[in-house]
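testing teh design pipeline on a random one, pls ignore if ur not involved
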């Protein structure tokens, strides 16, 4: 075996030491000049509300609590096809949507009667699946606001706030709508 020169051994040990020292060198981060704010106190988790559960079958547990749609009847999910009457109105569509919901329409103001008399668009002959509230808002359109009286279980509509004060301007009769232009003098015989 050849003898290793002591100089090589010393150079190898020096390189190893330099690599180890440089790998262990760390820099310290500067300390912040502002004091650190205290963290918010940790809130202890609240005890969850007790909901009774009953075993329904071998592997099924059912909560004994009403669903959101049972608490707020306008959140019921519906899928409605309107009767295809040629003279169906928006009022007929609103009544059909509310038929099994537990609510009824209130018919109090003249403006609402105008809404109810509008023809039912073909796009509204089938609504759903959606909530009863969304179906009513779809049938009424964006110009009307929905108000529900939960005590009397009535649904009322009012014109939107920006539309309530401005009545639509009456349209001029057809004879006045045509703009008349002065007659051009006619020249006989050729082009002008």
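output:
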């Amino acid at each position: 075996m050849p003898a290793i020169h002591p100089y090589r051994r010393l150079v190898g040990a020096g390189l190893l030491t330099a690599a180890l020292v440089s790998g262990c060198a760390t820099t310290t981060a500067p300390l912040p000049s502002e004091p650190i704010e205290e963290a918010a106190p940790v809130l202890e988790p609240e005890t969850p509300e007790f909901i009774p559960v009953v075993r329904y079958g071998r592997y099924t547990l059912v909560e004994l609590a009403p669903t959101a749609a049972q608490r707020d009847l306008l959140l019921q999910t519906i899928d409605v096809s309107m009767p295809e009457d040629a003279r169906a109105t928006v009022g007929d569509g609103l009544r059909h949507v509310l038929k099994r919901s537990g609510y009824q329409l209130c018919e109090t103001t003249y403006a609402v009667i105008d809404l109810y008399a509008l023809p039912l668009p073909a796009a509204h002959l089938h609504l759903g699946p959606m909530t009863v509230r969304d179906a009513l808002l779809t049938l009424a359109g964006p110009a009307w606001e929905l108000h529900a009286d939960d005590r009397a279980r009535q649904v009322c509509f009012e014109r939107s706030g920006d539309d309530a004060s401005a009545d639509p301007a009456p349209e001029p009769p057809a004879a006045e709508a045509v703009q008349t232009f002065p007659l051009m003098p006619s020249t006989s015989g050729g082009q002008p």
